[in-house]
Amino acid sequence: MDKFVIEGGHPLSGTVEISGSKNAALPLMAAALMAARPCVVRNVPSLSDVRTMTGVLRELGMDADYDPASRTFTASVRDTSRCTAPYSLVKKMRASISVLGPLVAARGYAKVSYPGGCAIGTRPIDLHLKGLSALGVRFKIEHGYIIARAERLKGAEIYLGGHYGSSVLATANVMCAAALAEGETVISHAAAEPEIVDLAGFLNAMGASVEGAGSTRVVVRGVSSLSGADYSVIPDRIEAATFLIAAAMTRSPLTVKGAVYAHLNAVIDKLQEVGVGILRTDAGLEVVPSERMRPVEITTLPYPGFPTDVQAQMMALLALVRGTSFVTERIFPDRFMHVAELNRLGADIRRAGPTAVINGVSRLSGAHVMASDLRASAALVLAGLVAEGTTEVLRIYHIDRGYERIEEKLNLLGARIKRLPAEGVY
Ligand code: UD1
Question: Cis omega before residue 124 (within 30°)?
Fold first, then answer.
């Protein structure tokens, strides 16, 4: 297991290029299960989650391959008799649940390991099951597996709102299955994330008819089969946000190439409220740092609200902003594992239910910290960039799930981060 050793206090400068979106790529890869012809997905980031999804798809009888040099994923269906996504792979990555809809729609049968909880909460799948049931899928839960069967899927009107709002991957699963259902499906309270728009674009490129993606009402007119497609995924808005925040924290002028302004409205709005300048350029976004920053109140919400996946990184920034900031988590109310670790670095953050109360401190000091999940680890790396002395971030396999070569990208900008094997067991 590797760790990062970060020498704090080095300013950043230059241009960083954003990779393709992990959260867009994974459901697209899963949707290739439904294609009658080969699929090519480009701009797929080189991440361990992408390798896990490639493994899941091979297990499901696909000739699936990922080429990290060209960032290209290719897949075609070889053996439709293999319909089990095993525990050994699903436990590595919850997004494996996104094979459920495509698999049962294409083959009439799916057996997918029931995903467990994770460091950010219990993560139920009731909306996935509700949406697919409405299309005619019958479910049994047996020995830790979801067993799904359907002879014929039929379009339906489906309300997909849950206790915490819309669900991204439930919307993805239902949209995929509806693409091969008979008749029209209307999903209301659909997730409106850009990754859902990208999936709709991919499905339409395969010959599906999906309208309204990006709004809360998605209409899918089923077709009898889907062809292949050659498609390129959108840039990763969460990675882009992480670099915007890195620039703000290190008070560095940075160009974030490929960042899509329209996907980052809520993050940019909050950074501007803090006092950080963000300019839109031809290349992407440019950060104009500020010495004087102001505390803010943030609530995470489904898109276009402030993304939960940027909450931890923003908290690392606010830890150093004089005054009191409040961050309320409305998507995953237990997503606060990073609070204790940021406090080990000298932050003053207190949790009150779903809200973190952040009293800005003037400095952080390097320490050993433990990454608990993907975005929490990014927050700790950001904190390490500005902490005095050396910060060691352990369990960085979390960060490798979702950030392509983050230490190399930051080092090219002037950071000092070493990836070393961690001694002992963590
Ligand atoms: C996706 C993203 C993840 C992001 C999250 C919220 C991928 C691969 N992952 O995860 O990075 O943090 O969206 O933006 O795209 N819920 C239910 N019942 C369900 C499903 C979800 O109650 O059946 C709840 C969840 O517990 C959570 C909320 O709905 O409170 C939103 O979760 P959801 O959008 O489903 O997250 P994912 O799609 O798993």
Answer: no
What is the residue type of 205? Answer: A
Give the residues surrounding ligand 1 with Cβ less than 6 Å away: 23, 26, 95, 123-128, 162-164, 167-170, 191, 195, 308-309, 331-332
Q: With 0.85 as the threshold, say if the pTM is over it.
A: yes
Topology, domain 22-232: UDP-n-acetylglucosamine1-carboxyvinyl-transferase; Chain (3.65.10)
Q: What is the pLDDT of residues 388-418, one digit of tens each?
A: 999 999 999 999 999 999 999 999 999 999 9
* Domains of the chain by residue range: 2-18+235-421, 22-232
For residue 15, CA distances in Å to 12, 70, 240, 252, 370 come to 9, 21, 12, 11, 29
- d(CA 314, CA 213) in angstroms, rounded, equals 28
- pLDDT by residue (tens digit) across 239-249? 999 999 999 99
What's the rounded Cα separation, in Å, for the pair 247 and 174? 38
Point out the residues that are catalytic. 118
Domain covering 2-18+235-421 in this structure, CATH number: 3.65.10.10
Domains 2-18+235-421 and 22-232 are alike in CATH topology:
yes
Ligand 1 atom nearest the C-alpha of 94 is 39
Strand partners, 120: none
Residues 113, 88: Cα–Cα separation, whole Å:
9
Strands 209-211 and 230-232: unpaired
Enumerate residues 6+ apart whose C-beta is below 8 A from 286.
253, 254, 255, 256, 278, 279, 280
Q: Which atom of ligand 1 is nearest to the CA of 126?
A: 23
